[in-house]
Specification:
- The structure is a single chain.
- The protein has 257 residues and is of the alpha/beta class.
- It has a domain of 125 residues: NAD(P)-binding Rossmann-like Domain (Rossmann fold, 3-Layer(aba) Sandwich), CATH 3.40.50.720.
- Helix content is 32%, strand content 23%.
- The protein contains 6 helices and 13 strands.
- A hairpin with a 4-residue loop joins strand 1 and strand 2.
- The longest helix has 22 residues.
- It is globular.
- It starts with 5 loop residues before the first strand and ends with a helix.
- 22% of the residues are buried.
């Protein structure tokens, strides 16, 4: 599939327009001017990842990013013949609603709003990793601990994690343009318990770190009663150990080791 332009809608009415071989164009949102760039399909990737908001202010930021911003934007774009949304959801939205956190619920609220107004393709993501990702997710924390030869703490019970490189996610999302409306997931073959992942990182980095159980946590995979169709495709030239080594090198430089 080829496209003349790619538009990126940011917060505060900011738009960036990309065309191959040219410098990006930055503009403020103007519904009349967007007549030149009409599209019937949009990828909705916007999110504010904060699973544990500390106060009401942080909750409002999550709601604004995950619900208010996209609903207001897509209401405007519907006037320009927007018909289809491809949106990414968290795998935590697959567990019963009473077990979901505020972050997941705001994303579910958006899906419930959109499915009655547009053709909706919902793609569930699990844990992701890749270059320049500074979110301090599980893989990053384990690597930092191993580089410093510090103890890696894990839950007392078995907790599972599925990790996918961002390049593979991007490829699968691009391929999702040919999918029908419905629910799908990107579940890679890189599936471990947290203990197994910690052991892999320690061994591949020749670290002196040890692993200790120290707290209680839920294994959310046990709560998922039905998994959507899996659209994962392995597109990376390196195996997981090589990708972890790349991430380890990036983190090592960032923390000055």
């Amino acid at each position: 599939m080829q496209y003349d332009y790619v538009l990126n809608f940011g917060r505060k009415n900011n738009i960036s327009i990309y065309k191959k071989g040219l410098e990006p164009i930055y503009k403020k949102f103007n519904i009349t001017e967007l007549e030149l760039y009409k599209s019937d399909t949009i990828f909705h990737l916007a999110t504010l990842y904060n699973p544990k908001p500390k106060d009401l202010s942080e909750k409002m930021q999550i709601k604004d990013a995950n619900y208010l911003f996209p609903t207001e934007l897509f209401t405007q774009l519907k006037k320009l013949e927007l018909k289809r949304i491809i949106t990414t959801s968290s795998y935590l939205q697959l567990i019963p609603s009473e077990n979901q956190n505020f972050y997941s619920k705001t994303k579910t609220d958006f899906v419930n709003w959109a499915k009655d107004k547009f053709k909706l393709t919902e793609v569930f993501l699990f844990d992701s990793f890749g270059p320049r990702d500074k979110r301090d997710k599980v893989l990053d924390i384990f690597i930092k601990k191993s580089l410093k030869n510090e103890t890696i703490q894990i839950p007392n019970r078995r907790v599972e994690i599925n990790i996918t490189h961002v390049d593979e996610i991007s490829y699968c999302l691009y391929k999702s343009l040919s999918l029908k409306s419905g629910r799908y997931m990107i579940l890679s073959k890189n599936h471990f318990s947290l203990k197994e992942l910690a052991q892999k990182i320690i061994e591949s980095g020749k670290s002196k770190s040890t692993i200790e159980g120290g707290f209680e946590a839920e294994n959310f995979f046990d709560m998922i009663k039905e998994f959507p169709e899996n659209i994962y495709e392995n597109t990376m030239p390196n195996d997981l150990d090589g990708l972890i080594n790349d991430k380890r090198y990036e983190i090592k430089r960032a923390i000055g080791l």
